[in-house]
Design a protein that fits this description.
This protein has one domain: 3-Layer(aba) Sandwich (Rossmann fold), CATH 3.40.50. About 40% of the residues lie in helices and about 15% in strands. Strands 1, 2, 3, 4, 5 and 6 form a 6-stranded parallel sheet that branches. Strand 4, helix 5 and strand 5 form a beta-alpha-beta unit. The radius of gyration is 16 Å and the shape is globular. The structure holds flavin mononucleotide. The site of flavin mononucleotide has 16 residues, from helix 1.
């Protein structure tokens, strides 16, 4: 087990989310000392909240959680050809916190959808959305799990050999990047 502290963001709030299953499989393969899934059930972003009561405590807690992580995995569903409103809302809120938690943060993007292409458009959109925050985005391999409702066994284990191979490679890359950043 590595000494690394891993955080996951899941863009689907659904209890039986296949993105959460994929995220949990990614965390298992990363083999972190600690894994925490962030809570993205946040208020909808409004500048009236920001300029009135201020950044909600749960948003600041999310930003701090990301800031303290050695690596972060973002798992996105595809809703109408893009990432989910849940994910975008979280990113918008986080961008308004003072600590700039994404800067130089090792991150990996993964996606799962019931379509054949595994949420390719949402995946690509999320990568683009992350770039202005200047994280250390691991470029690949791309993990986009299609027909995601049929890809896990009863224990939530990914059954696709190819899916496991790509996810293992991606997590190896993310761990390497996190160790590099830790060593300065
Ligand atoms: C509002 C909505 C829009 C969707 N749009 C797409 C889409 O554009 N492409 C796609 O592959 N699947 C689409 N889906 C199906 C999702 O991929 C599927 O519900 C998936 O299981 C969601 O991820 P989750 O299992 O993590 O909740 C859509 C589902 C919903 C509810």
């Amino acid at each position: 087990m590595s000494e690394l502290n891993l955080v996951g963001l899941c863009g689907s709030l659904r209890k039986a989310s296949t993105n959460r299953m994929l995220l949990n499989e990614a965390a298992r393969l990363f083999d972190a000392a600690a894994f925490t899934e962030a809570d993205l059930n946040l208020p909808l972003f409004s500048q009236d909240i920001e300029n009135g009561p201020g950044i909600p405590p749960e948003v600041q807690a999310l930003s701090d959680l990301i800031g303290s992580a050695d690596a972060v995995i973002l798992a996105t569903p595809e809703y109408n050809k893009g990432t989910s409103g849940v994910m975008k809302n979280a990113l918008d809120w986080i961008s308004r916190t003072k600590n700039a938690p994404w800067r130089d943060k090792p991150i990996a993007v993964i996606s799962a959808s019931s379509g054949m292409q595994g949420g390719a458009r949402a995946h690509s959109m999320l990568r683009t959305l992350m770039l202005p925050f200047r994280p250390r985005l691991v470029p690949g391999p791309e993990v986009m799990l299609g027909q995601s409702g049929q890809q896990f066994d009863g224990e939530g284990r990914l059954t696709s050999e190819m899916g496991l191979k790509l996810l293992t490679e991606l997590m190896d890359e993310l761990r390497r990047e996190a160790l590099r950043m830790r060593q300065g």
